[in-house]
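**Backbone geometry record:**
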Amino acid sequence: MATSSLATRLTGWTRHGVIVSYVLLVVLILAAIAYNPHFASWGNVRAQLQIATFIGIIAIGQTLVILTGQIDLSVPWNLTFSSILMATLYGEGYGVVVAVGAALLVGAAVGLVNAIGVAVFRLHSLVWTLGMNALLEGATMVYTNGQPPDSTIPGFIRFLAVGYVGSVPVAPIVWAVLAALTVLVLARSRFGRFLYATGNNEPALFLSGVDTRLVHVGAFVVSGLCAVIGGILLTGYSSQTYLGMGNDYLLVPIAAVIIGGTNIMGGSGGYVGTIAGVLIVVLLQSILSVAQIGPAGKNIVFGLIIIGLVLLYARQARPTD
């Protein structure tokens, strides 16, 4: 069966990749503190964790999708459109439940359409989700008439994004709960096993009696929902919505997943490594900012990281016999 190689994959490159990611995180933390002792202050740690929350939640969905051997490039404008919709509905007098529920419904619908393109029409997710991202961008422009969108943010959302329980920010707590649930699902559920098996050998899994189309639906719908949740928290953090607010959340979550040891070709990895990857990219962004490296330089750094790791994974995936 397609899952027969799962244990071997997990005890081989995957665990090695996770260990490497956490070792790299420790090294990067020590280097950052040596460069600027302010990195070790609790105020800076709290700020970094809040920023990591948005990336980490979005990376939950990307991890699941990438495990199946696919990718979701519709995140930026799914995040933007759903956040603007939430703020607009709330500003028009609808309650927070209706506003947030509508945004989540949009995210789930986007994920479902992405899954249909991949699982039913058998189109490559790179092309299909990129097209969906462009469609959502156009829909957002039509919805807002190209004008600055409403920025009436519910107080509850503000609390989740920037509130505190004692001296601990609420946002990382939300991330921790979702992260624990994700790790549990991947490690203990049939859905988690099917995600790995789909990435390893989808035809074999299908022949064993599993409808792999539903696996893709689950992965992409979760990705759509995570994009919305990340976007809603981002609106609370920034106290506004704006066109293109999701543009910075395309490359970075994918980089976090790959740095965390998940194979871009699918079939191996997991969210435990992604957590380290998220913290690495956030810390790296902070270091580059302190070093006065602009957005172009940051994109070059993350692009080189992704290209290098993709080449490494492709090498690992080649048969040796």
Q: What stands out?
A: The two ends are 20 Å apart (CA to CA). Residues 1-13 have pLDDT under 50 and may be disordered.
